[in-house]
């Protein structure tokens, strides 16, 4: 093999590794968003900003590894990141720690985080409240 053929092969391997890492990160980001929002809603939003044909079924197959992964466009990735809640203002320098029992939708947690608290444990049994809690 010539020097350029070796270089081309090396560049191809690096590009494939970077693409795989990006797809893994995209899948992780999408998984975090789907813990909060339902698949149909996320697919509708992705269709509005991206070039890919998104549907609830497509998202479900992708997350469950039943189809080849897509690479998110920059607009799709930015949308998903903005759908996630921001870190508390005092992160990581918290003034105190607390637990959030019977958390509901997270009102007490929001208040404590606003004054510098770090939630170390949360308990809520209602699955719809949990989704709202994660969104907050």
UniProtKB/TrEMBL annotation:
Keyword vocabulary terms for this entry: Coiled coil, Methyltransferase, Restriction system, Transferase
Catalytic activity, reaction form: a 2'-deoxycytidine in DNA + S-adenosyl-L-methionine = a 5-methyl-2'-deoxycytidine in DNA + S-adenosyl-L-homocysteine + H(+)
Positions in coiled-coil regions: 1-28
Pfam families reported in the protein's UniProt record: DNA_meth_N, DNA_methylase
Transferase as UniProt keyword: yes
Top-rank lineage group of the source organism: Bacteria
Domain DNA methylase N-terminal, residue spans: 28-84
One of the record's GO molecular function terms: DNA (cytosine-5-)-methyltransferase activity
GO annotation terms (biological process): DNA restriction-modification system; methylation
Name of the protein described by the UniProt record: DNA (Cytosine-5-)-methyltransferase
């Amino acid at each position: 093999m010539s020097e350029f053929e070796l270089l081309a092969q090396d560049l191809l391997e690096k590009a494939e590794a970077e693409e795989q890492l990006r797809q893994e990160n995209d899948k992780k980001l999408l998984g975090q968003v789907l813990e909060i929002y339902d698949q149909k809603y996320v697919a509708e939003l992705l269709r509005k900003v991206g070039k890919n044909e998104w549907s609830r079924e497509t998202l479900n197959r992708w997350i469950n590894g039943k189809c080849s992964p897509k690479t998110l466009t920059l607009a799709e990735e930015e949308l998903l990141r903005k759908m996630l809640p921001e870190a508390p203002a005092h992160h990581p320098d918290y003034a105190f720690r607390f637990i959030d029992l019977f958390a509901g939708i997270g009102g007490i947690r929001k208040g404590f985080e606003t004054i510098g608290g770090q939630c170390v444990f949360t308990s809520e049994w209602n699955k719809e409240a949990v989704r709202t809690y994660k969104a907050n």
